[in-house]
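re: the backbone from monday

yeah here it is again, tokenized this time
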């Protein structure tokens, strides 16, 4: 399931994938410039989640 979601993010150009030819193989993921534009949205979602958790403790 995780690999499917990562593939979708890669197809949407949100992340970039680098595969290193090592044994065992190593894969690295980075946010693209488009993916980085989501940072403010994610930070706002984190704030909302923190407030929600405080209300429901």
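seq for it, each position gets an aa:
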């Amino acid at each position: 399931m995780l690999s499917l979601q990562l593939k979708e993010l890669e197809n949407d150009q949100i992340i970039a994938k680098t595969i290193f030819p090592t044994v065992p193989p190593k894969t690295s993921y980075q946010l693209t410039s488009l993916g980085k534009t989501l940072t403010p949205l994610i930070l706002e979602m984190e704030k909302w989640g923190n407030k929600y958790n405080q209300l429901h403790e």
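The first strand starts at residue 15 and ends at 20. Residues 3 and 29 are 12 Å apart (CA to CA).
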